[in-house]
């Protein structure tokens, strides 16, 4: 996983060093500025090695929480020597539950020409405020990176060499599992990771580097997976099998909806409704798998919707289609209602269908209380699960 650092302070507050300097003391003048600087050093040293904003800290925490919730907690963390990258990696590590120490790699530093000289990076003593790996030996020295002028081709080759070296590292883990590595660096690093680690490398040009922050925003992340040469053909077969299974699931689900629709047209025919419900459940199982289906339907917070949904199916089978369909529809809304706004937004991006979604009836439905309530409920669930732990780390306070 290669990601860009979070929001930097000098990009949000122009000329912040001069404006916050009150007789040599730091005094924030904007709510997005940290209440305290992360490290104790001269203010002029932050001009070329800036820190994160408050929003940047929260954004880093959300990314870390997202990695935890998607089972992508990193086992190894590499980062650029820039302060903003070290801070971002620290908060992502903290919120993802990772036990890995930060491996500060100078070879990941960007290749921008600084008019006032090379940035003054953190000293080894100042880095001790962060969970850095003191035993790590970098692949490249800092002098080799910033000690000379570097062309664009040399910069591409340097990033390619460092990323390939990281990908080839072998680690001893407590349990046998897939190794997950997080690299926190700059916008150009994310773009180069996509271009340089492919079978036919794509180099990033000078023109692309000038505005690389536009297509690669703060905390943008790319997820790459390394395949060995011997397993390449087998992986293709496995991917084909998985895609075929999902195609069967989509087909069964579509037939399920068709039979349910046909059963409604035939004045709530119990047989057609039962066949449609059976095909729908089997299709969902084919698409997401048996284990995920059980977790989805029988999760504690979705238990009410599952009881109504499956109870409605049983009522339909016992010969009461009207009451069964009412209970089943209400359970379906409780289970899948949170996906409705996303489905409508997806349809709006498809040419031809997008005009239909903006018709008065459908547009009002999208903004109705049901969708708004479902979105609000999901946001509350995420906020409850991603509750930020109040801590003061390196002088930063969580919001």
TrEMBL record:
<dbReference type="InterPro" id="IPR013078">
    <property type="entry name" value="His_Pase_superF_clade-1"/>
</dbReference>
<dbReference type="GO" id="GO:0006888">
    <property type="term" value="P:endoplasmic reticulum to Golgi vesicle-mediated transport"/>
</dbReference>
<keyword id="KW-0333">Golgi apparatus</keyword>
<feature type="transmembrane region" description="Helical">
    <location>
        <begin position="274"/>
        <end position="298"/>
    </location>
</feature>
<feature type="transmembrane region" description="Helical">
    <location>
        <begin position="329"/>
        <end position="347"/>
    </location>
</feature>
<keyword id="KW-0175">Coiled coil</keyword>
<dbReference type="Pfam" id="PF00300">
    <property type="entry name" value="His_Phos_1"/>
</dbReference>
<dbReference type="GO" id="GO:0005783">
    <property type="term" value="C:endoplasmic reticulum"/>
</dbReference>
<comment type="similarity">
    <text>Belongs to the GOT1 family.</text>
</comment>
<protein>
    <submittedName>
        <fullName>Uncharacterized protein</fullName>
    </submittedName>
</protein>
<dbReference type="Pfam" id="PF04178">
    <property type="entry name" value="Got1"/>
</dbReference>
<dbReference type="InterPro" id="IPR007305">
    <property type="entry name" value="Vesicle_transpt_Got1/SFT2"/>
</dbReference>
<feature type="coiled-coil region">
    <location>
        <begin position="152"/>
        <end position="179"/>
    </location>
</feature>
<feature type="transmembrane region" description="Helical">
    <location>
        <begin position="248"/>
        <end position="268"/>
    </location>
</feature>
<dbReference type="InterPro" id="IPR029033">
    <property type="entry name" value="His_PPase_superfam"/>
</dbReference>
<dbReference type="GO" id="GO:0005829">
    <property type="term" value="C:cytosol"/>
</dbReference>
<dbReference type="GO" id="GO:0000139">
    <property type="term" value="C:Golgi membrane"/>
</dbReference>
<dbReference type="GO" id="GO:0016791">
    <property type="term" value="F:phosphatase activity"/>
</dbReference>
<dbReference type="GO" id="GO:0042147">
    <property type="term" value="P:retrograde transport, endosome to Golgi"/>
</dbReference>
<keyword id="KW-0812">Transmembrane</keyword>
<keyword id="KW-0472">Membrane</keyword>
<dbReference type="InterPro" id="IPR045176">
    <property type="entry name" value="Got1"/>
</dbReference>
<feature type="transmembrane region" description="Helical">
    <location>
        <begin position="305"/>
        <end position="323"/>
    </location>
</feature>
<keyword id="KW-1133">Transmembrane helix</keyword>
């Amino acid at each position: 996983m290669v990601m860009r650092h979070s929001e930097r302070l000098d990009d949000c507050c122009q000329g912040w060093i001069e404006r916050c300097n009150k007789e040599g003391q730091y005094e924030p003048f904007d709510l997005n500025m940290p209440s305290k600087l992360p490290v104790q050093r001269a203010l002029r040293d932050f001009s070329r090695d800036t820190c994160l904003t408050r929003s940047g800290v929260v954004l880093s925490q959300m990314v870390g929480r997202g990695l935890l919730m998607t089972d992508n907690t990193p086992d190894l963390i590499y980062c650029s020597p820039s302060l903003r990258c070290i801070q971002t990696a620290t908060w992502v590590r903290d919120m993802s539950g990772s036990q890995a120490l930060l491996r500060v790699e100078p070879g990941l530093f960007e290749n921008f020409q600084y008019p006032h000289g090379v940035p003054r990076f953190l000293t080894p003593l100042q880095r001790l405020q962060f969970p850095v790996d003191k035993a790590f030996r970098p692949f490249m020295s800092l002098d080799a990176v910033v000690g000379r002028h570097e062309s664009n081709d040399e910069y591409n080759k340097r990033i390619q060499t460092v990323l390939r070296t990281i990908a080839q590292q072998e680690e001893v883990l407590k349990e046998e599992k897939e190794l997950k590595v997080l690299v926190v660096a700059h916008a150009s690093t994310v773009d180069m990771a996509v271009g340089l680690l492919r079978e036919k490398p794509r180099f990033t040009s000078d023109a692309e580097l000038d505005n690389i922050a536009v297509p690669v925003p703060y905390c943008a992340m790319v997820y790459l997976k390394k395949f060995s040469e011997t397993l390449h053909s087998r992986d293709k077969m496995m991917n084909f099998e998985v895609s075929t299974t999902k195609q069967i699931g989509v087909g069964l689900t579509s037939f399920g909806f068709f039979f349910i629709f046909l059963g409604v047209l035939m004045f709530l025919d119990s047989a057609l409704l039962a066949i449609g419900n059976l095909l729908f459940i089997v299709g969902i199982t084919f698409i997401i798998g048996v284990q995920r289906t059980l977790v989805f339907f029988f999760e504690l917070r979705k238990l009410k919707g599952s009881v109504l949904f499956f109870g409605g199916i049983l009522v339909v089978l016992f010969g009461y289609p009207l009451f069964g369909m009412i209970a089943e529809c209400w359970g379906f809304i409780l289970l899948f209602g949170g996906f409705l706004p996303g489905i409508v937004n997806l349809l709006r991006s498809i040419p031809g269908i997008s005009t239909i979604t903006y018709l008065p009836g459908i547009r009002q439905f999208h903004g109705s209380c049901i969708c708004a309530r479902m979105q609000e409920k999901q946001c509350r669930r995420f906020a409850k699960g991603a509750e930020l732990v109040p801590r003061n780390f390196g002088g930063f306070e969580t919001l």
